[in-house]
Fold this protein.
Amino acid sequence: MELILDSAVVDEVIEISNWGVLDGVTTNPSLIRKSGGDFEETIRKIAEICPGPISAEVTSQTSTEMIREGMDLKSRLPENVIIKIPCTSEGLSATKALSESGVRVNVTLIFSLSQALLSAKAGAAYISPFLGRLDDDGKDGLSLIEDIRTVWEKQGIEDCKILAASIRSVHHVEMSAKLGAHAATIPYKIFKQLIQHKLTVSGLEKFMSDWEAVKSEGRA
Ligand code: E4P
């Protein structure tokens, strides 16, 4: 499964990238706002740190403007940047045009199977179902991942990756993998939790104290 960091904070990308397991990064206008950095400068810095895909989101609302903005971003930003388009009818039309021009698109803000299907049909390279926001709305985000995966298998959809997004917990990441999502975009705080386990901490402490004893006995 591709592991993606859901952040526009360059220091967070550097830290997680140093673990050696980071594939890409997703950003959105809210994350850019929160980071305090300049949009293009931030995307360029992130694109130098990890292989990608790095998702940069358009802010236009009409298909024509989204296509123009997507092509413009694609021409100015590094090769590993892909274009994030919202799941609207205008967004679908833009996804179709951009993907036919060879631009890889991540369709975002997906909350239903029908939206996922339409986005794949339009040529999306990635679709981003938002688990946490569905849970917040009283639905079950993980069951959407399961449904999309089932339909992808039954319909033989192979060229559109399921990117689990709006992740709120380690459980979301683990279950997304179990249910067959191709990728997960994970907030910094949750990424840090993925490596933690109390038995690893206590186990290591014991190994280290035993090793000190071995050394004090002159056996190492
Ligand atoms: C996906 O690409 C989005 O950036 C993100 O996962 C949104 O998550 P949120 O619901 O935590 O804002």
